[in-house]
């Protein structure tokens, strides 16, 4: 018997569909509608993603009732659950992140197969969680490394805003964000009291360390210099971070290639991470957080039952989908692969904590 997955039926007129397909790299929306749970709503829709736009099974961004949803084909992930499992893990460790749900996607009556519906990070995201937001920025490429220099180069960036896209806030908010990056890089030495005081004033360090631990434990190598959102909390005026695009995790990279459980070092990457971990008190707190997660949340006992549930729910539909990149046998072995990753990663991180 097939698992009950929600169905999202996209309806796009002929001319609008031609416009959408004419240039897969265009970020322009076209008009359409979506039928979901017996209700039809007008939508705006466009393709989303980077290299995945060239794939035979593409992903979509949909604006419905003012809210943004992403429908990811998860084409590179043979399990189709790595993104969803990662976001569930972030919830457990106290980092707000998007809600996800596997669904069946249809386009003008054609079955596109299993997709992952992901809640967009927008005004509604914060409103739903009772979070007051001043500004929001997406880290859209690997220039978003909190440094004055691009990765692997000695030439300064033309703008400290390079790598980011502003989603909420004013030009003044943008200036404040670039000032944060500038002061991080110029306010005394990396371990100065003045710099630590500034970071304590402008950064939610607990949130950042939890996010860092999540990226390190799940093994998201691409999650430090891009694939995150950063917002300024209105009341505290501190920056907080939100994870995004976590399919390259749990033992596979963003193209689905198996990678070692030691791919991501326990101290992570980017300028802000390096600076924070030079302060003994911050480093000690991070070490305690990681140790607690190894004891409570980053365990086979906690994670694998959830992975099994997700995997079993989509299995009947995945095995019938001939348009997928990966074989059914590859899909069938994914929960075992994730389990092996967790076991190996736990040992590696536990060993690294002794020297942290």
UniProtKB/TrEMBL annotation:
Keywords per UniProt: Capsid protein, Virion
InterPro entries named among the record's database cross-references: Spore_coat_CotH_CotH2/3/7
PANTHER family named in the record: INNER SPORE COAT PROTEIN H (PTHR40050)
Protein name per its UniProtKB record: Spore coat protein CotH
